[in-house]
């Protein structure tokens, strides 16, 4: 596979990740607009409130990083989806949750886990090409 194909695949994967994170941003933004940033989500634990509210800002930051600083964006993207699924899995043991949102998070986690290596390799291609040319 040539360098351009690797870079192109990485870009498309990062674009898919970014679009998924935009959807998550929209979900968190709707909650913030309806209830405010200080909402207690119906009485959940303080750390859960802080985590869920922080995703209103972290998700769009990950989107920006995926497109501007790809490797940093990939690290943030993986951290977000791993912690989100881990947290929401723990939360679901003790509370009712929206199954559709939870299953979409798990699907996204599986997709990222299966494709992030390709996205990572292609994200470095631009830097490698620059080094060879110079």
Automatic annotation (TrEMBL):
Keywords on record: Membrane, Transmembrane, Transmembrane helix
Membrane spanning stretches: 50-69, 74-93, 99-120
Name this protein carries in UniProt: DoxX family protein
